[in-house]
Amino acid sequence: MRKTSFYYSNNKLNNYRQIYQGGEKKVMRKSLSILLAITLVFSMFGSLAYAAEMTAAEKYAALEAKGIFSGINAEGDAGLDQPMNRAQFARVAALILGLEGIETLENGGDTKVVTEKPFSDVNLGEWYTEEVAAVLEAGIFVGNGDGTFTPTDNITVQQLAVVVATLLGLTPVADAEVEGAAPWAAIYIQAIADAGIAFPTNYTEDAIRADLADMAFTADLAINPPVAPTPAALAVTSATAINNKQVEITFNTAVDGTSAADEANYEIKDKGTTVIALGASSAVVSADKQSVIISLDAVASDKLTNSTKAQVTVKKALKSADGTTLGTDYVNKDVTVYDGAIPTPVSVKAIGLKALEVEFSEPVWDGTDLTLPTADFLVKSGTYSYFVNSAEAVGNVVTLKFGTNLIEGPIVVTVNNSATPLIQDYAGIKAFKGELNFDYAKDTTVPTVTVKEISQTAITLAFNKPVYGTDVMLFHSVNNVANYGVEVDKTGEANAASEWTFTFGDAKKIPAGPVTLYLTNSTVAASQLTDLYGNKVPNQTLSATIILDTIAPTIAETKLNTNVSYDITFSENIDVAEAKAANFTFKKVSDASEVAFSVSNDGLKKVTLTPAATLADNTQYEVSVLAMKDVAGNALAAAATYAFTVGDNVNPTASSAYTVVADKKIYITFSEPMNATQMVDKTNYLVDANGGTDAFAALGADATVTAVSDSKVVIFTNVAIATPSVTIGLITDLAGKRIGSDATFGYNPAALQNIAAETLGLTSAELTAVNKIKLVFDKELANLDNTELAIEQAGAGAFTSVVQIAAVESLTVADGKTTVVVVLDKDLNTNATYTDGTVKSVEVQIGATANTKSVTGTVLTANVAVALVDKLAPSIDKVIFVSATEIEVTFTEDLNAASIAGVGKNGFSVTGGTLTSALKHGTQNNRIILTGTGFTVNTDVIYTAGNILDAANNNALATVTKSDALTAGAITVVAASPVDNTFTITTNYDASGVLTLGGVDMDPATAGTNATVTINGVTYTATVDGAGEVTVAATNAATATLAATTATIVVTLDGVTKNVTMTIPTTTAAVAGSNPTFN
């Protein structure tokens, strides 16, 4: 930088470049500069109030700190009463806009030089030349009419107006006249005044540096507003046990009040291991929203153990005030719990005519519960002692209630007044006997009320003190109209509360946007809202705004509860009607087998899946959330799947045992993997070879115990065995849990008594493809003879397979069981049935057996039938275009009617036409009827996987698109009898509309006999069965005399037409040939 004539500091300007403009000089063309100024002027007006509060000296100091202004001498004096010349202020304007010369492309764009004089009196090489050239090009300064700039002349107030208005992008006010100002300046001065900016009025005099600093500061603040700092990512800064009942958690920034007050976002473990459940109001957020105090108040006795380490977890779903989440769980396993302080009463106040609150330094109780001994409190007005009816503790506050009204004046409260005081903190430290004094005066103020929380279905009102009342109504939108209001009762002083929640529900849902609320008392005075001093709450009108929730719920947390249940917590309150089994799946990962479960919810955010049987230890499972909606109807964006492994939670057992008599072997299977060394130690087994429980003996020298797997052993006894019994000693699972129970020393359950010989059986048969069945045998197979198996009609009994096993695709062994997948020679239906003229249920029949054996030689149990289970999802059989308003979709099997909503589109959509609804057919469970407008045979039908299941409730309909041309609806007329003129009308869709014969409406809309029509002397009756097939029959007897005739009957069904020509030859007997012919 070149030396200036007004003591600009090199250090200050370098500092300016680094802080203010990133170290780079900027150049702007005139049009761009003006556009920027016009854009930025809108930010100026919000800054005017801020600028108006500062003095000229403060504004100068701020600009000096940015390197825009500098002192008038080496001492750095501000010289606010001194003038400033035009060159100096040109430099100030350039610095505000970030202009410091004109950049050329010479030398790679690194050189900033002016090669031509910007004005005749501004020479090249002067300290101000580049800045004057820059503000000229930007249109900030225009110079004098004679082409000069007069850089050393002082800038006048009206010249300053032109520069400031141009900097701020203000539009000159045409033809403006300002007294004392030149016309060329008046148009700018008026623009500044219209913008609400204070400006000097001595227009023709020199502007002093105070004026220049004032205007420059306003311009700089508008053009270069302060950049808001990037908020810090939400983080937990500390977790501290305040005492044995409370934990304080602090954050580095403000948190969202609702999220931080949600107890589901925290987990407290006493001694790092035992989870302490939290109550609905356990989390209290501080006023600055940077800390939360968690009180262990779900149960009175809940507390942290003194002189231990607790574990505190803050869940990742907790939100900051700007809506961002913690991201990952905060876990602190080293929270010190130590409380050695004596609890002390710190204050007392009246809360009613007959009630006081005593505040302690920390939460207190009596060591048993929160109902404290009334003898521990002595309350006196002078010499009069009050009878204490009750003393109830909530946290660190004890509420005392009396039998009589308090007397105005001094009152003395003595704490722990009895001979055996019990008031203590949760570390067991008792409070000293002490006194509190205060002057009681009756409160005569009317309680106030505000809206604390509001949604479309519920409103919580907060009173500034407890109130009670009966028949209290809150109406929204319209006062005193039942359909817009709900009632809440909190009768009597004992039920007084500071918060009242009015639940409107879906039936009386409140509209989004601004809403007026009407709090209305009962007309009975004794029932009206009243505080504990007897002050009434008048009827009043409140205003609030409901912001419509359009955000989809997310899954905030999942949690396995040992072997018992699985919790899924959502980010917001859910529609409890959606907490249903159809929205979840629960599977064992190893074999994808379904886990039967029930669904419950807490009415808020949490859904619990409870398996019908206890989950197996050390086993991986998978839970999928298919769908969910929040209370506003927003749907979960996408399905989610969670895999988890159950820990070792229960003691192992002997789940089964059997013998192979010929081999002198006993096989024992345990419920889980066992300690490998203990499991094969034969000293851990006693055997009674002949059964019973009275002749147990140790295994002989030749006996062995060998591991078959990590959860199965074989005992070779080397002696004859019939139905032996076994006692097992102290063996454990991999987690060290004893077999049976922790107290077991000799384990001999029923499963190990009189152990029977091994059997080999088929435990399940599942249809996994239309031509594949998965068979599971309960033992490891050595050989499979598939001719000993038949796929046949259920209950048929005979060993005559209607479908043959064509091949064995695979055979695998796991967990001591054998899974075989066989391929069939014919396809079955997707619902595990077979159609052979009629639909037949299917089972796997085991006939006589000799060759299918286990590895120990046991033959498969004969003459057993196992039902075939449907594990195959339904698929679309056909899609029929019936008309421009109806498309019929038929599936390969019945659907679960309960999984199909009674309104809406149920996951269907179309391309080509407008879909109105997609609903199950009235009687046919394998059909969905699409209704709408504009359908053609070229309409695409799309189903997006959702909630629709098959009738077995096992298999969900997959996403599918039918994009090829649809089949048009058609009817076929078939002669059923050549004697009595009977014929049958069949369709390729469900005949649900109107049948017309010869122009007469037969209306076979439902199963049963309908209207009749007589044509050419023959009376016809139409019937329609449940499957939609229509039969038309003549009612004349076969021997009736019929007139010779030939006639055409026009048959129309659902708008589809067929012509039927009836020919009756010359004869007197219908039996001689009165059959219709068909064209």
Write the layout of secondary structure elements.
Elements lengths: L9 H11 L9 H23 L3 H10 L20 H12 L31 H9 L19 H11 L15 H12 L14 H15 L12 E6 L4 E6 L5 H4 L5 E5 L3 E3 L6 E3 L5 E5 L12 E7 L15 E8 L7 E8 L2 E6 L16 E5 L2 E2 L2 E7 L2 E6 L6 E7 L18 E7 L8 E6 L3 E19 L8 E6 L6 E7 L9 E8 L9 E2 L8 E7 L8 E7 L3 E6 L13 E5 L8 E5 L4 E6 L8 E6 L14 E6 L8 E7 L4 E6 L5 H4 L5 E4 L8 E2 L5 E6 L2 E5 L8 E4 L33 E8 L2 E6 L3 E3 L5 E5 L11 E10 L2 E8 L8 E4 L1 E9 L6 E2 L9 E7 L5 E8 L2 E6 L16 E4 L2 E7 L6 E7 L6 E4 L16 E3 L4 E2 L2 E5 L7 E5 L7 E3 L2 E2 L6 E8 L2 E7 L5 E5 L10 E9 L2 E9 L12 E2 L1
Helix pairs in contact: 2-8, 3-8, 4-5, 4-8, 6-7, 6-8
Give a description of the structure:
- With 1079 residues, the protein is mostly beta strands.
- It folds into nine domains: 47-223, no CATH class; 236-337, Immunoglobulin-like (Sandwich), CATH 2.60.40; 345-440, Sandwich (Immunoglobulin-like), CATH 2.60.40.1220; 449-546, Immunoglobulin-like, CATH 2.60.40.1220; 555-646, Immunoglobulin-like; 654-752, Immunoglobulin-like (Sandwich), CATH 2.60.40; 762-870, Immunoglobulin-like, CATH 2.60.40; 876-968, Rab geranylgeranyltransferase alpha-subunit, insert domain (Immunoglobulin-like, Sandwich), CATH 2.60.40; and more.
- It is built from ten helices and 65 strands.
- Strands 38, 39, 41, 42, 43, 44, 45 and 47 form an eight-stranded mixed sheet that branches.
- A hairpin with a 2-residue loop joins strand 35 and strand 36.
- Helix 3 (56-65) crosses helix 8 (209-223) and helix 4 (86-97) runs parallel beside helix 8.
- The longest helix is centred in the N-terminal third of the chain and has 23 residues, at 30-52.
- It is extended, with a radius of gyration of 45 Å.
- It starts with 9 loop residues before the first helix and ends with a strand.
- Mean pLDDT is 83; it is low at 1-49, 102-111, 976-980, 1004-1010, 1037-1042 and 1065-1079.
